[in-house]
Each structure stands twice: as C-alpha cells, then as structure tokens.
Amino acid sequence: xxxxxxxxxxxxxxxxxxxxxxxxxxxxxxxxxxxxxxxxxxxxxxxxxxxxxxxxxxxxxxxxxxxxxxxxxxxxxxxxxxxxxxxxxxxxxxxxxxxxxxxxxxxxxxxxxxxxxxxxxxxxxxxxxxxxxxxxxxxxxxxxxxxxxxxxxxxxxxxxxxxxxxxxxxxxxxxxxxxxxxxxxxxxxxxxxxxxxxxxxxxxxxxxxxxxxxxxxxxxxxxxxxxxxxxxxxxxxxxxxxxxxxxxxxxxxxxxxxxxxxxxxxxxxxxxxxxxxxxxxxxxxxxxxxxxxxxxxxxxxxxxxxxxxxxxxxxxxxxxxxxxxxxxxxxxxxxxxxxxxxxxxxxxxxxxxxxxxxxxxxxxxxxxxxxxxxxxxxxxxxxxxxxxxxxxxxxxxxxxxxxxxxxxxxxxxxxxxxxxxxxxxxxxxxxxxxxxxxxxxxxxxxxxxxxxxxxxxxxxxxxxxxxxxxxxxxxxxxxxxxxxxxxxxxxxxxxxxxxxxxxxxxxxxxxxx
Length: 513
What we know:
Helix content is about 75%, strand content about 0%. The protein is built from 15 helices and four strands. Strand 2 (about 405) and strand 3 form a beta hairpin. The longest helix is centred in the N-terminal third of the chain and has 65 residues, at about 1-65. The chain is extended and about 105 Å long.
C-alpha cells in the first residue's frame, strides 16, 4: 500500500517537472520567435532603406544618361576652375611683388583697424584738459607722492615681515585670530594705497589729467577700506585724520584735474532736471527710462529708499519683537543715535534694489533666493564690523537652526530676507516710488541734500558715541574734548536705553587685545 502511494507521488513529481520543462521550452520558443520577428523587422527596414537608396542612385544615373550635357558642363566647370588656379599660380611665380603688395595691404588694413580701436580707447581716457599744463605746485606734489609712498613701502613691508614673524613664533597668540586677520588686511590695503599713490603721482608729472582723475575712484575705495580697518583696530582715533584728509584732497583734485568730469556731471544734472520736470507732468517720474528695470537707480531714489526702508524696517522689527519674541515687551531697536532709523534695513533695501531692479518681472522664487543671499551676507558683514570695531553685538543666532558664520546670520532669517525681498520688489517698490514723487520736483535736490547731511552727521555721531561707550567699558581713558563731550552727553545709561538690543563686550573687539 505504501509502495503504491510512493509511486503515485513520484508520478506526480515527474509530471510537475515535465510541466515546468514544457513551460520553460514554450517560453524559450516564444522568446526565440520574438527575437526572430524583431530581427526580420529590422532587416526589412534596412532592406527597404537600401532599396530606396539604390533607387535614388539609379534615378540619378538615368538622369545623367538622359542629359549628358550636364555631365559635360560639370566637367568643363572643373577644368575651368583648375585652369584658373594654374594661371594664378603661374602669375604668382612670375610676379612675386604683387603677392608682397597684397600682404602689405592686408597688414596695413589690420594696423589701421587696430589704430582706430586704440584711438577710441584713448579718447575715453583723454580730454581737452590734458592740453593744459598742470601748475608746478601739482607737479611737485606728484613728486612728493611718489617719494613719500615709495619710502613708506619698505616700512610697511618691514611691519608685515615682523608681524608674520610674531604670528609664526606664537608671540601674538593672545591677540586673537580676528585681530591678526584685520591687521594683515589693513597692511595689504596700505600697500595697495601706496602703489596707487605712486601711479597717481606719475600721472600728475606726465600731465595726464584724465587718467589721474579716473584713478581717484580707486583711491576712494582704498581710503575708505583703510579707514574701516583703522576703526576696527584703533577705534575713532587720530589715525582717521590721515584718511579724512586724503579723501578730501582726492575729491578736490579730481574736480580740478579734469574739469570735463565736473562739466559732464553738471550737464547731465541740468538735462536730468529738465527730464524730471517732463516726467513729473507725465506721471512717470522715477521710472527706469530704459525699461530694463523698474526704478531709475540714481542718488535721489536710492537715498530715499534708504530712509523710508530704515523707518519701516525699524517699526516692523519692533512689532515682531512685541508680538512674538518677547510678547508684551516694547523694545527700542533703533540703529542710529537720532531718529527712528534702522540702517541695516535701509542698506538692505538699497542693495536689493540695486541687484533686483531688473528682476521685477521675474519669477518670485528667483527674487527670493537672491534676496536671501544678499540679506544674509550683508547682515553677517555688518555684525562682523560692529563686533570687531566696538565689541558690539545686536543679534546672535547661534542657538537658531541653520546658524551660519558664528551666529551672525541663519537660514530662517535668510528666508525672512528673501521674503522681504519679494514683498519689496513686487509690492513696496511701486508704493515707494509714488511716495517719493510727492516731493515737488523743484524741491527734490535741496530737500535731499539737507536730509543727506543730517543722516551723515547722525551716522558719524553714532560711530563716535559707540566708540566712547566701548572705551568706558574697556577702562580706557576718555581725555580728548570730543570724547569728553560724548561721555557727558551720551553716557552708559543713555546708550543702553537708546540701543536696547545692543550690548558691548570689549573683549570681542579686535583692538586692545
């Protein structure tokens, strides 16, 4: 009985294996059949293409047989071309002077084109003022610049070498990395400034007024950079007198060296005043006349953007602090000594306007990303300068998610800058333009000049008061008349109440370490 059951099981297993083998064979046959079918299909297409190509060739041959004159014409053309080339070769061998003349003519044409380009470029850097001889005093001044700047270079190089030795030996280990970095940056700026002054002096001696006037723009950048480094290293000190005097002299020399620059600015200003009058009557005042951007990027528009954005940004930040950061607590978060201004928002709005003006019709995502990078970068640089110069900390995002650059900015607040950029470019910029245009066109320059002078004085006094606050907290003597004035009028209590979001930590500054 058991044997019979076992035999049945074996039969079923054999039947199952046979079934599997049959399925495998059928699948293999089906696959092989599909491969043959595909191969035959491809062969058919290839054969069809070959037949079509052969038919086309056969058609061409038949046409040539039917029209033998075409073959003859083609052959004659080839022979004529070959004959022309042969005659040209023979002529060149017999008359080599013509080849030389053609080559000279080609070289002369290229030289004329090069001279024209050179003259065009030179015209941009020359003016009628170059024909007037500079006074002897300015030529002597140029010599003094070369001598003085040249003599300072070895001294600066010596300071750089000694500083590098001190850093390498570890003697400046107590100064802090930030102090060392700012020191070397300052020395590099001084080297660049000395070289620029030497070149400037050479231009004066050679009477190249236009070149010297244009070079003054480079001097502006270097003088301002040197002044900022000096503030970070020494505060508001006597060292700044050098940079202030250099800036004033450079401005005066630029206008004198090439009066055409001043004349061009005056002509453009008069033309612009006439255009503004027409645009004011037409209702298009302040718009970009080229159509590439939304707003015209002139000093008037950018200055009032700075002022209005500084005010709006301050109120926005105070409301956010009152509602969300510390609910129910109102905090004065002003950034200047006088007035309801937060300059970081004003500068941020100006930067966004400069970089995003042409993107006012672009996708909001592009505006968001660019504004986030601009806002976050500017916030980080401002924090770095304030901390290095005065030990001042007005914000710290170290505990925020996505903190960057030691808490100077963070991803959430960069996203806020991006959102502000979208709102500013898409919504507020048109409102801003309408608001500014309430100023009568004939009052625009006078009112802007007065307001700009006030903002400049406010900014300078803010820096000086912060410097005096730092000196008091660090234990430095407050002995100069200016320092005593700020010490008396803007003491610690006043400064702490005015800048409620700011704290001074002298140990964080790069000076005095």
